[in-house]
Design a protein that fits this description.
This protein has 236 residues and is an alpha+beta fold. It contains 8 helices and 7 strands. The protein has 2 domains: 145 residues, Gyrase A, domain 2; 59 residues, no CATH class.
Length: 236
Amino acid sequence: MEEIKRINVLDKGFVELLDTMPSHHMDMAVVSAARVSYLMDSKGEDKDKFLVGFLLQHGHTSPFEMAEFKFRVKAPVVVWWQWVRHRIAEYNAQSGRYVKYDDTECYLPDKLRQPSKHNRQASDEDKLVEGQEQLIKMMKEHYEKGLKLYNELLEKGVAREEARLVLPGFAMYHTFIVKMNCHSLMNFINKRNHRDAQWEIRQYAAVLEEFFKEKMPWAHEAYLKYYKGVDENIEG
């Protein structure tokens, strides 16, 4: 088996590319899907690459749904809360009903940002909160108290599904399997690797784009030219 490539994200998270469909030359899946209308396939690399760009330029996106990516992603709830808004993907997630949470599975930022003056839902990564060292220390202590109580509840016989209620929810890491086709992936990257998206999810979107570029260079080139920035409506 080909070794699974992992890219670390944030302090304890990661993205792994588990599988693709097809397993090689994924751009040709787009070409084949587009040309099946004429019972044709490849016309040579130059024409095939041109076709990928032509399709995206003119909004013919269904052929891009014939190429798929499957990732294993470890991210804090603050990221997943926004990620699952993209309903054009398939998810399976770690469950706190079945497994005990590790005592170190909380996202602790290394800097605290001020609210943006230009976007009420966003923050300004260039403007940091004063006294943040002490505030981060207080956050860490808060996490530790919740985790300590969680373990105490488990020791007293409380079920995992109830004991988890005391955990620092938005900071807890969860691991998901995420599958999405190329069209969905472009939509995700376009919205989440955007200056107005939350900084944490942008780090994950940038990694997904790195995998996208590696596996589908023709489609990624067309994405940058014809798709990126088309939809400026950022939600979540």
